[in-house]
Amino acid sequence: MILVPSLKERRVPDEPGVYLMKDGEGKIIYIGKARNLRKRVTSYFGKHDPHVEWKTGRLVSRIADLDFVVTDNEIEAFLLESNLIKRYRPVFNIELKDQQRYTYLKVTDEPFPRLMVARRNRAGQFIGPKGRVYGPFVRGSSKYLTIGLLRKLFKIRICNRLPKSPCLQYFIKNCDAPCISKVTRAQYMTGVVSLQEILEGKSSIEKFAEEMQQEMKHASEMADYERAKDIRDTLYRLSNLRTRQKMEKAVNKNPDEEYVGILKDHTKGVAHVMTLRRTRGVISDRKKFEFDLVGDNSLSSFLLQYYTSVPIVPRVVYVNEEPDERRVLEMSLQKIAGHKVSIVVAGKTGEKRQLVDLITRNLSMYIERGYSPAVVELKNSLGLQTMPEVIDCFDVSNLGTSIAVGACCRFTGGRPDKSAYRKFKIATVVGQNDFAMIGELVRRRYSSIDGKMPDLIMIDGGRGQLGAAIASLSGLGISDVPCVGLAKENEAIYRQGTHEPLLLPKSNIGLKLLQHGRDEAHRFGLAYNVNLRKAA
Length: 536
Prior knowledge:
Mean pLDDT: 81
Radius of gyration: 32 Å
Shape: elongated
CATH architecture of the largest domain: 2-Layer Sandwich
């Protein structure tokens, strides 16, 4: 498939909007927003850094078609993108795995409607009978916890199909049995309409209780004591719901603040996010999310998806890094929330910084659990920014002057990955020049990298070999992959930008991983050298 010519034919405009990427079957696989559609869309088909954007490369390889929607401004693009993502749930976009914490209620479109929990399928569509959907409601909110109570209060039936005889719910006075015409549809719908008005916010539980009080009084005056008793029982049930709602309102009157931290694991191409909600100085909720680092997926796009999925948007959100297009994001959230929303990077000191640091420490531990202990130890010992999940180890095998070869062994997750081993016959260096040979090996290995770049490059040697490797990487435009040299003497580790080598205890499992890599590269290279000599 060739996409770039079709893009030219489509004449993507230089305007804000939303773009929809589709695969060969016409299925939407990614939705993004842009201040300038043409610049953003065409950027996908330029040269990408395979170390940073390898997952975006997977996305691009599946694109067969493109649609776009022009908007008047960036805020509209933000909101439209969020709505479309929720509707189509593209595989490469951020999907909040925690969305099951929120629920929806449905009043069915039936002659005698039912109240039920509305559920979604994998495509995000509500399943089950047709009806009016209300929500989302937070799990733990009174509306969710008391769905059974709401049915009892408003005498809403629970049967899937109207039976030919009354069920237990009728005899315990939770239902007026429309199945046997004990109640007319008009009478039944009175309760349904009252329930809908409360769910829509047009009415309140207090107003409904007042109406029940008046009806109970009227029933008593008319000597309809059975009816008065039923209403009294309904009011008793209602008191529990009203108490819970008052507690919620008391909490929600106080301006909430939320803390959001993000850590990016570039090794696996995944971002980890944790949120803490604080109300009246007390942490009231904690959630953990993760999403793939693909396309425009970022903290900014996460925040928009998150706050369009929760019932309450706080007035202040403290974060550990500046989100993209923060002002546009704030204005978009203001339209959603109906009040001003500020996104603030936590200061360097103080209580808010402590809370954000607490989040990032927890995320760090969460990320580390997915890696080999030796990989984690190596990261901490070398002070690396990312986990060295993939390590390439280089060695030169030079027995005499006639034949010189080199080897690159790859370790993934602390284990040899033999499918990624590479061997080279030195082609450009004459004589015994280990520095130049290492430079050639590194240049040839990464001049046409097949697959993902490593997270760490290790050279068998000291400062000179390390310098040659770094020079080759620089010549290829690769500057974001850390490189170290492991010298056999004292097992000293030489690093970029430091003069003194690092000496780790012999028992350090990170050092042992490097030694394993060095020895494996030496073995592999030596075996290749011996085979060439035998064939000569």
